[in-house]
């Protein structure tokens, strides 16, 4: 029987689901899968994106771990595609590769003042509070008044973590440096800005409702934002999700505010146009244009400019994929160009044989963890059907990869290593009744994983 030696680059949910689906699929060949991950620990944004105070979603890691624990997938962590292994290496040892490298950067936002001190990307902040090893250990939390731009769940995650009292995060897995940083924060007001109205937000109801339950945080909404046009009324009447969101917001309109030490303001119909310089290169205020509904579910500017003093701004306007050496890249959308997961040359429809994509790097940084499963199904169906176009590797043996990494001095981590790290983090949390405390420095993660 023929054997497919498959490399998967990126051990987030997309890569792990792809491996699982292929192993369970009906096919006429054997499969052997190696999963390469640049971080010492697997699970991608489930570990390093999903908010630490969302333990139910973090729990998806247990299902992903079950897949890895089955024992038919090898994982090589702390191995970066582009430096530790290249596309030529993969062609030498495998029949095909699937890239599932996700997205970790912030999408750009082009407004005056965006480069001022105090202007941050949400993705950077998320990486910090979720203990990503490749970002600095400290975060400048010095602002009393903060703006968060965006009306999706990442904007809510960022706003919630900023507004919450640090002690209320102590039950979570947040690393010690994050707790210490948040404890010092003098924040009193978090202002969330969305260009469109309450009926057009991309929040999910559960995430929104959660804000109203934060201890010692008042939710502030503004009556002027609830003068719905016909399109908004129709959206509220016809879409269950919008209806629930509207109900939550309407309740907040009737709440008394003023008792809490922190406030979380939701500004709708507010399009940020500029960050104002305090004269020393730091953010002093945000200017935004009031918008109004255009009658078709969109908005137009009214020309009315308003200003709110702030000392920090986080843009949560989307994530963006990163290019990989030797692999086509679509610079506009931040994805690997592909048709249903089959990679294409950039700017043409020419197929790049043996190369596939799945997850956020395939279809862009939108959608939930569950969506990466259907994504993977599509990509895997092509991997199976493309047998005639697979690469013919010179050395497909499983040992050859281990030998190559050893020869290069790559300190890779494996599944046993993840178990060591997992147990270590759980043990760190146990005396304090916490599920785990994350280890942040990369060298420490590697040392614990490799039991060195
Ligand atoms: C802040 C935030 C909160 C979220 N919250 C939720 C939520 O509550 N519920 C939900 O369902 N979804 C949530 N999501 C969405 C969810 O995280 C994504 O749908 C999912 O993680 C995408 O999976 P992926 O495998 O494509 O990418 P990723 O999860 O990003 O995984 C990609 C992996 O590839 C690795 N990689 C990248 N480059 C290389 C390289 N050169 N070499 C080797 N490895 C590499 C990365 O280190 C990473 O481990 C959230 C997303 C964000 C950003």
Detailed description of the structure:
By secondary structure, this protein is of the alpha/beta class. It is built from 16 helices and 18 strands. It has helices at residues 13-24, 44-48, 55-58, 60-69, 87-93, 122-129, 153-163, 176-183, 205-211, 230-238, 240-254, 360-363, 371-385, 398-407, 415-429, 442-449; strands at residues 3-9, 30-36, 73-76, 96-99, 105-106, 119-121, 145-149, 189-193, 217-221, 262-267, 270-277, 283-293, 299-309, 312-315, 319-320, 338-339, 342-344, 351-357. The strands form four sheets. A seven-stranded mixed beta sheet has the order 3-2-1-4-18-17-16, sandwiched between helices. Strand 16 and strand 17 (342-344) form a beta hairpin. Helix 1 packs across helix 13 (371-385) and helix 10 packs across helix 11. It is globular and about 70 Å long. It starts with a strand and ends with a helix. The model has no long low-confidence stretch (mean pLDDT 96). Bound molecules: flavin-adenine dinucleotide. Residues 9-15, 36-39, 44-46, 49-50, 54, 57, 80-82, 100-102, 126, 154, 157, 319, 324, 359-360, 367-369, 372 line the site of flavin-adenine dinucleotide (FAD). The site of flavin-adenine dinucleotide (FAD) has 35 residues, from helix 1, helix 2 and helix 7.
